[in-house]
Hints:
This protein has helices at 20-27, 36-49, 67-75, 85-93, 110-119, 129-141, 177-186, 210-228, 253-273, 286-289, 322-326, 416-421, 427-431, 439-449, and strands at 6-9, 12-15, 18-19, 31-35, 55-60, 79-82, 101-103, 123-126, 146-153, 175-176, 193-199, 235-237, 279-282, 293-305, 308-313, 332-334, 345-350, 359-366, 374-377, 399-403, 406-411. With 450 residues, it is α/β, with parallel strands linked by helices. The protein has a domain at 36-289: TIM Barrel (Alpha-Beta Barrel), CATH 3.20.20. β2 and β3 form a beta hairpin. The N and C termini lie far apart (70 Å). The model has no long low-confidence stretch (mean pLDDT 94). The protein binds ligand LLP. Residues 60, 62-63, 81, 104, 164, 166, 201, 204-205, 239-242, 283-287, 322, 326, 383 line the site of ligand LLP.
Amino acid sequence: MTSRYFSYRDGRLHASEVALDALAAEVGTPFYCYSADALEHGYRHFAAALSGLPATICYALKANSNQAVIGTFAALGAGADVVSEGELRRALAAGVPAHKIVFAGVGKTAAELAAGLDAGILQFNVESLSELRLLSQIATARGTTAAVALRVNPDVDAGTHAKITTGRADTKFGIDAKEARDFLLANRDIPGLRVEGLAVHIGSQLTDIAPYRLAFERLIALYRELRAAGVALRRLDFGGGIGISYEHGPTGEEVAEADARVTAYAEMVRALVKDLDVELVFEPGRLLVGNAGVLVTRVLYVKDNGPRRFIIVDAAMNDLIRPSLYDAWHEIVPLKAAAPGAERRPVDVVGPVCESTDTFARQRPLPPIAEGDLLAFSSTGAYSFVMASTYNSRLLAPEVMVRGDRSAVVRARMDYETMIGQDRMPDWLAAAPDEDLSPNRQAGKTRGAA
Ligand code: LLP
């Protein structure tokens, strides 16, 4: 992989202008590294593509919710799309103004709705009529009014991986379009609520514009119909989902490719909303962060099991679950550039977790790799660290951000005290007499008694 932001210099892979092997020496492996320059490029290009439109870009925190990442976008004027109280708090703490925050999600609790109301957010994207009733009650009880968009299920197939598709009628997301329409026509005044908008989000990692156009056309038709009937709508939320390239050309074509995709998307939107009196919200996640991050890992062992060669690295499915969960393909490159013309042979790259699904790549042609080498998994800025766990009681990896030639640890590696210290012994164990029933001990006792 090389790109404008991740490239080999003197044979060493750099993020922005920082050598990743030097970071590995400083923070240990595995670790995530994000390029702030890449983050800023992504945001600026998206904003520029939409320039002139009355649009709020609400970065979808779920893709990467490190405070430094949110803060980087907030400094450029971004809003936030949040799906939990935790994300709401993160957005506010990173400096995103409440009036640029949308709160989405199919299962918001009463406490989360109240937290959003207290913060004074831009809009709740409501996903069921039951949620709407609960929000109405909570807002009324607090003597306030909630701004709402109804998330409509447009019944469009996004043509992406089944596990990340959300716009079909058979998914749990959104409200059936006809149900939303009938409800809004029949209920003009709902206590504590101002229904101001309609929202859609049809899936993630979309690389084709056509499903978007179909979904947006349906949403716009509904918007026009409801406005004509006197429903005071003023906003459309087109969700997120713009895909990135996980395969990198030799000179970083993925950045140009993402830019071209964004431009095409923005032109499509521009044409659709021309003549429409409307404010817009966009919720990009992966697009802004996916190709701005790498996961760096060290090779622990190389082992040949019969004809198959396994490269066992110190990162595992707990650090990066996308290959196990979605069969996702991430490019794997050595930090030290392979010799020109080096022969590639198929290897399996696996982690140390005791599951056969802890496999990052099967039969991947890679240049020669030795024990101790450092490797990078590319395109791991989105849905990677945020989906990490401590499975197998492995510590959460640290996150580093670079900008130009500077670097900062933006999340330290978890330590064992923190990991174990969150558990508590119940009283009965703390007070229990020391009774050792292990077979060895039993045998010992018997012998001692004889
Ligand atoms: N808005 C809503 C309502 C969403 O559900 C999502 C993502 C987004 C925006 C942002 O979508 P993006 O622009 O990032 O595609 N873990 C999966 C992706 C799950 C996406 C969930 N929703 C993966 O690793 O591919």
